[in-house]
Amino acid sequence: MNKKLIVLIGVILVIAIIVIVVGINLARNNENTSTVQNQASGENQEENQGVGQVTNNKTNVEQNQNSQENKNGNVLVVYFSHTGNTENVANFIHEAVGGDIIKLETEEQYTDNYNDLLDIAQEEQNDNARPALSTQIDNIDNYDTIFLGYPIWWGDMPMALYTFLDEYDLSGKTIAPFTTSGGSGLSGTPSNIEDEEPNATVTEGLSVRDSSSKNSQSAVNEWLSEIGF
Ligand SMILES: Cc1cc2nc3c(=O)[nH]c(=O)nc-3n(C[C@H](O)[C@H](O)[C@H](O)COP(=O)(O)O)c2cc1C
Predict the structure, then answer these.
(1) For residue 182, how far is its CA from the centre of ligand 1 (angstroms)?
(2) What's the mean pLDDT in 129-137?
């Protein structure tokens, strides 16, 4: 009788162990499945964001044209930047005033070799060249204020800026120039812009040292309030 009881208890114990082991495995499987699902939905989210960004890039300026109007009307920040300094300033302006922002790109990309670039830029300036732009801005008429940013190259705007000013009639608009440079400041460029766009109002410009572009937010905000933004 005792022996039978011991066998019975043994059988029950074995069954209980099997049930526990199977239960644990099932629970683990469920966990794995939900982790995979989460990862998958995360990936989907990333993918979707990617698609969103591409769409945004494609529609670019067009998309937001009617979206942001502040007290100075519709604003567009247009800038050229080869090494990112002017872009830093452009982003601070955009953060502060809203509106749209677009980087001017040339069809032919400039070299990253500094010495070669110095030669190329000087040659373009000597030739009064108009490097072709790959950036197109549709409906520039929708904007009242254009923030125009560029580095100083050989004491002037890069010639691509002259292409931009040739291609777009900015009559009746306000142009707010901003530059970065190694120390030349605005280098008289606002009056060159006035020459190119005689029917636009050119505000006082902002110049930022290349080494300070990342820390230029307060200088940007001060300038913006000086020119009425
Ligand atoms: C071709 C070339 C010419 C330059 N000429 C001047 C100049 O005349 N005066 C000056 O202060 N800095 C000059 N610089 C320095 C740039 O203006 C400065 O590094 C600027 O912040 C670069 O802007 P980015 O990073 O937006 O391209 C020159 C740089 C290059 C590449």
Answers:
(1) 6
(2) 98
**CATH top-level class for 67-226?**
alpha beta
Instruction: Tell me the pTM.
Output: 0.75
Tell me which residue has its CA closest to atom 9 in ligand 1.
Answer: 184
| CA angle centred on 120, ends 116 and 122, rounded to 5° | 115
Residue 110, beta-bridge partner list: none
SS3 69: strand
Q: Could you give the CA distance from residue 151 to residue 101 in angstroms, rounded to a whole number? A: 17
Using CA atoms, how far apart are residues 170 and 27, in angstroms rounded to an integer? 67
Helix 159-167 crosses helix 189-196 at what angle (to 10 degrees)? 30
Residue reference for tokens 């636009």: 200
Mutate to test the pocket of ligand 1, among 152, 161, 180 (most ligand atoms within 8 A of CB): 152
Q: Per residue in 152-183, pLDDT tens?
A: 999 999 999 999 999 999 999 999 999 999 99
Residue 13: its pLDDT value, please? 65
CA distance 153 to 147: 19
Query: How many alpha carbons fall within 13 Å on the CB side of residue 135?
Result: 23
How confident is the prediction for the chain on average, in pLDDT?
82
CA distance linking residue 56 with residue 154, whole number of Å: 35
Dist. CA 152 → ligand 1 center (Å): 5
CA angle, corner 132, sides to 128 and 134, nearest 5?
150
What is the chain's length?
A: 229
Task: Give the binding-site residues of ligand 1, using a 6 Å CB cut-off.
Answer: 81-87, 117-118, 121, 151-155, 180-184, 210
